[in-house]
Amino acid sequence: MKRLSISLLLALFLQVSLAQNAKPIFKDGEAQIVEAFSNPEEWIREDLWVETEFDTDGDGKLDRMHVAVTRPKQTETEGLKLPVVFETSPYYAGTAGMAKGLFWDVKHELGDTPPPRTHVEVQRRGERPIISNSQIRTWVPRGYIVIHSSSPGTGLSDGSPTVGGDNESLAPKAVIEWLAGKDNGYKNREGNEKVEAYWSTGKVGMTGTSYNGTLPLAAATTGVDALKAIIPIAPNTSYYHYYRSNGLVRSPGGYLGEDIDVLYDFIHSGEESKRPYNNKTVRDTELANNLDRITGDYNDFWAGRDYLNEMKPMKAALLMSHGFNDWNVMPEHSYRIAMQAKKMGLPVQIYYHQAGHGGPPPMRMMNRWFTKYLHGVDNGVENDPKAQIVREYDSQQEPTAYADYPNPGAKDVTFYLQAGGNSTGVLSTSKGKSKTTETLIDDVNISGAELAQATNSENRLLYLTPTLTEPMHLSGVAKVTVKLASSKPAANLSVWLVSLPWNTADNAKIYDNIITRGWADPQNYKSISKSEPLEPGKFYSVSFDLQPDDQIIPAGQQIGLMIFSSDKEFTLHPQPGTQLTIDLNGTSLTLPVVGGRKTVDGAMK
Questions:
Q1: What are the tens digits of pLDDT across the range 54-69?
Q2: Measuring CA to CA, which residue among 2, 30, 13 is closest to residue 375?
C-alpha cells in the first residue's frame, strides 16, 4: 500500500512537472526548445479558411484564404495560448516552372514591340492540411504556433493573384485579424460554420524569403495592430525596381525576359474555373495595359506596387535580411525600406551577408526578435547593434556587429576619369583639365565578365584606381554621373564597379570581382517617369545610384569603373553597333568610403 502511494505520488509529480514545462521557456533572451512541444506526432494540424474584405475572382462572394495551422497539443488540452509565426506564399501549390515561351523574348531593338509570349497553366498540387513545413520545426518546439496561408488566387485560396496589388496586402491582414480575435474564420471554403483562433495570444510575427518575404512587408503596410514584428528575407519591395532600372527594361538576374505578367502566370495555381476571369481582368487588362515594356517608364501602376509608398501606417518592428550579391532581388529593395522605417522611428535591425539570393539572419537574431516582440520578454534586443554584416569569407552565422548601416564612418569621395578607357584609363580624386571624350561600341554578345577581363576592348570603357596599398572599406550607396552621346535615339547604359585583377579561380566568390552594379536608360535622364528619344550626337547627363554594398577591398586590388551598353545578363539584346561617346569631364563616380578622403589618400599613395 505504501509502495502504491509512492508510485501514485511520483506519477502525480511527473504530471505536474510536465504541465509546468508545457509553457515557453526563455534563457539569455531567447525562447528555448521545450520537450513537451517537440513531438510532431502530437502537434495539432488543421486547415481552415479566413474571409477577407474583397472579391477579386468575380464570383460575387468575399474571397477566403486557405490557412494551415500547426500548434502544440497543449493549446487544446491545457488551454495554452501562444503567439503566432505566420508565413504566407503564392508558391505552396506549385508553379508553372520554366515552361518554354513563358518569358519575354529580349532579342529586339529598344523601343520595339516585343513578340508575344506563351501563357502557361499551373498544375495545382499540395496536401491538406500540410501545405508547407517551413518554420514549423524551428518555432513550434520553442513555444509558437505556426500558420501558413496561400495568397490570393493560389492553392485553395479564393481570389486572383495581382502581383503586388492591394489584395496581397489585405489577405494576410485578414488572417492576422482573425488570429487577434476577429470573427472571420471558417471551417470550410464554402459554408457558414465559424471557427475561432482561441489558442492565439493575438501577437503575430511574419517571416519568409523572396516573395514570401515581400508579403510580411505588404501586411505591415496595412498597419494591422496584431502584427508586432516582421523578418523579411530578400524581399521584393517594388515591382518597378524588380523589373526596371532607372527607366530601363531590366530583368532580374537569372530570369532573362521575366516581367510582372510572367510572374502572374508562374504563380496562378488557384481554382481552374476562376482562372479565365482572373486572366482577363488582371493579366490581360490591368497588367498588360500598364507594364510598358516599350519605354520602361515609372507610372501610377508601378507606384501602386511600391511598398515604400505605403509605409505610413506601418507599426511592426523590422529585422531585415538580404545578400549584397543578390542579383535577383537586389539589395536596394531592403535598403530603401529599412532606411524609411528608421526615419519613422520603428525598431529596425538589418542583417546583410555577402552571398546571393536568400539567407536568413542567424537563429539567435531571429529568436531574440520574436522573443521580444511576440512573447514580450524584455531581452534588450532594441539596444543590440543596428547592423550585423557578414564579412568576406566569414560564415553567414558569424556576422560582424556595426553601429548602423551604412557605416556611420562612411563619407562620400568623388572620383574622376582620365583617358585610356578602351584599355585602362585612370580613376582619380583629381579632375582632369582638358576636355576628353572616349567611345565604346555596344555588343551584347560579350558578357560583362569578359569585358572586365579584356586587356583592350572597343566595347567598354574601364577606369582604374592605383593599386591599393591598404584595404578600403566601402559602405553604402555608390553613385555615378555619366555624360554621354548616343549614335541612336535609344541605348542601354550599364555600369559595373569591379575589383581587379579578376579572380578566375574555380572557388572565387562573386565579390572577389564584382563590387556593385547599376543600369539606366539615358532617355530618362530627366526623370524615370518620362523618357524622350535621344538626339544622336547630343550629350546628356545621366545620374543614378548603384546597388547598396558593404565590402572591404583588399590591398593589392584596383577598383575599376566599367561603362558599357547592353548587359547580356540583364538588359534587352539589341543588334550590336550602337556607339556611346563619354565626356570624361562630365562623368564621375562617388564612393561611400569608411574614413572618407583620408582613407582614400592613404590607400592610393
A1: 999 999 999 999 999 9
A2: 30
3-state secondary structure of 203: strand
Residues forming beta bridges with residue 323, ordered by sequence position = 353
Which residue in the list 158, 259, 326, 443 is annotated as catalytic? 326
Instruction: Give yes or no: 166 in active site.
Output: no
**Catalytic position from the list 151, 169, 210, 334:** 210
Q: Is 326 labeled as catalytic in the residue annotation?
A: yes
Distance (Å, whole) CA 114 – CA 108: 7
Entry pTM: 0.95
Which of the residue ranges 127-131, 241-245, 435-439 would you say has the lowest mean pLDDT?
Answer: 127-131
The grid coordinates listed for 362 are: 542567424
Amino acid making up residue 91: Y
Burial of 25 (0-12, 13-18, 19+ CB in 10 A): middle
Q: Is 357 a catalytic residue?
A: yes
Q: What is the mean pLDDT of residues 8-36?
A: 74
Confidence of residue 20 (pLDDT cuts 50, 70, 90): low
Strand order in the sheet with 317-323: 185-186, 44-51, 64-71, 145-150, 82-89, 200-209, 227-233, 317-323, 348-353, 387-389, 400-402
Q: Are 399 and 353 in contact (CB under 8 A)?
A: yes
The mean per-residue pLDDT over the stretch 326-347 comes to: 98
Q: What phi and psi values does residue 328 have, to the nearest 5 degrees? A: -95, -75
| Number of residues assigned to the chain | 605
* Joined grid coordinates for residue 331: 539589395
CA-to-CA separations, 573 to 296, 374, 567, in angstroms, rounded: 15, 49, 8
Q: What is the rounded CA–CA span in Å between residue 565 and residue 187?
A: 57
DSSP β-ladder status, 472-476 and 26-27: unpaired
**pLDDT of 318 higher than 80:** yes
- What are the backbone angles phi and psi of residue 167, rounded to the nearest 5°? -65, -25
Helices and strands per DSSP (H, E), number in the chain: 14, 28
Largest CA distance in the chain: 107
Indicate the residue type of 279.
Answer: N
